[in-house]
Amino acid sequence: MQRHPLASTAHMLITTVLLFAAMSCLAAEGDNSGFLGKTVWETIQRGGAVMYVILALSVIGLTFIFEAAFRTRRSAILPASAVRALASSDTAAAVERLAGKSQKVSLHRVLKVGHRWRRGSTQQIQSAIEEVVDDMLWQFRRSVRPIGILANTAPLLGLLGTVVGIIEAFDVVAQEGALGDPSALAAGISKALFTTCFGLIVAIPMLLSYHYLAGKAETLLRQCEELAKEALVLPPD
């Protein structure tokens, strides 16, 4: 039984959201407790300004992920109806009909370019198809690049917050002479480490989503390329 076109996209989105939610609760010890008995929101507040920046990055990243997931659904790249049409006995008529359809569907766009070169040589047709597919891949990779940038930036911001927090902790020790009180120093360092942890919590699912979406787009577009070549390039005699 064939999967609904939106099924894989919905599955990826749900998985991403659950990853964000589950990883944010890794240190939970009670029904409403987070780090050191604090709720997740209290932990974010305690981590300082850097935590808010990382939180903002997570929201921006989710927006890009949702948009990319919508663009990589199978019905937008390689619809099953078009594949069935190309597998029919009258392939030439199917190509002409699909090439005239909405160019928002990737396969239609590839077929249109190939159909435009139908009177050219086999090499010209193949080159035209490969060129348009490579162009679409480049455009998609450029559109999801912010996800990769955000995924790499989040842990670095977390590390920055940790360094600043440790500096502040030792500054308190220097000013108040709290070196004899291990709990005071430990509390400061613990607070400083929140940002690194939170940065990783945001970065890991974002990085996984980035590679998943990029891989899915390339797989589907390469399938478009192969189908178009089979439909437009006549086998040698």
Question: What's the quick description here?
Answer:
The chain has 237 residues and is mainly alpha-helical. The chain has nine helices and no strands.
Could you explain how this protein is built, in words?
By secondary structure, this protein is mainly α. The chain has one domain (7-232). Helices cover 78% and strands 0% of the residues. The chain is built from nine helices and no strands. The protein has helices at residues 7-24, 40-47, 49-71, 74-77, 80-86, 91-99, 106-116, 122-176, 182-232. Helix 2 (40-47) packs across helix 3, helix 3 packs antiparallel against helix 8 and helix 7 runs parallel beside helix 9 (182-232). The radius of gyration is 26 Å and the shape is rod-shaped. The relative contact order is 0.16. Mean pLDDT is 80; it is low at 1-7 and 26-33.
In quaternary terms, these chains amount to: single chain
Helix content: over 70%
Query: What integer is the average pLDDT?
Result: 80
What gross morphology would you assign? rod-shaped
| Computed CA radius of gyration, to the nearest angstrom | 26 Å
Task: Output the number of helix runs.
Answer: 9
Question: Kindly, what is the distance between the CA atoms of the first and last residues, rounded to a whole number of angstroms?
Answer: 37 Å
Write the layout of secondary structure elements.
Elements: H1 7-24, H2 40-47, H3 49-71, H4 74-77, H5 80-86, H6 91-99, H7 106-116, H8 122-176, H9 182-232
